[in-house]
Specification:
Order of helices and strands: HHHHHH
Radius of gyration: 17 Å
Structural class: mainly alpha
Number of domains: 1
Mean pLDDT: 81
């Protein structure tokens, strides 16, 4: 087994566990739909988060596939990125053992740690990638800065309209970034 395959397998397992947990939670919410008070924004984050986990897996695969040797310290930023994304997934997953679960209240109770889980890895990883791979500041990096601004706004305000704006800005910029990196944009 090549070093790349070994490292990619570890990341793949963590991302697959995150996706399985989130899918199980979505299934449980459907199963107990009569006792759950649904909130569209929480459900939208969950669905888009599944797409985001796939995007993280593909981007980690793309970055790591070009590396022949990697030290523990070089691997650590990527691993913390994946682990924090797993924690964000765990936060999105409500405990369905709560009678009469209100997903709106639940979402606002986890809003701050969830948004921090989105913000912290990119604040650490993006500068590290620029330095490590001598990457220029391109349009994809500017979309990340836009996401940072949106996430900070979401951390500072608990208003529904701000949280909706954060959701749409974050995912719109994510799609723009993916198109740009794939060469479509």
């Amino acid at each position: 087994m090549e070093p790349f395959e070994y490292i990619a397998a570890i990341y793949s397992i963590v991302i697959a566990l995150a996706a399985a947990n989130l899918l199980a939670a979505l299934g449980e919410t459907l199963k107990y739909r009569k006792t759950v008070n649904h909130y569209w924004l929480h459900t939208a984050w969950c669905v888009m988060w599944l797409v985001g986990l796939l995007a993280v897996w593909v981007s980690v695969w793309d970055v790591l596939s070009g590396i022949e040797n990697m030290t523990f310290l070089e691997m650590l930023p990527y691993f913390q990125f994946v682990v924090i994304y797993y924690l964000a997934t765990w936060l999105l997953k409500p405990s369905l053992f709560t009678p009469e679960l209100d997903l709106r209240s639940y979402f606002y109770s986890i809003r701050t740690p969830f948004l921090l889980c989105l913000l912290i890895p990119s604040v650490v990883l993006v500068p590290w990638i620029i330095i490590r791979f001598d990457e220029p500041m391109d349009a994809a990096m500017f979309t990340v800065f836009g996401q940072w601004i949106a996430l900070v706004g979401g951390l500072l305000s608990s208003r529904h309209s701000v949280q909706v704006a954060v959701f749409f800005i974050f995912w719109t910029l994510q799609v723009v970034q993916e198109f740009y990196q794939s060469g479509i944009g």
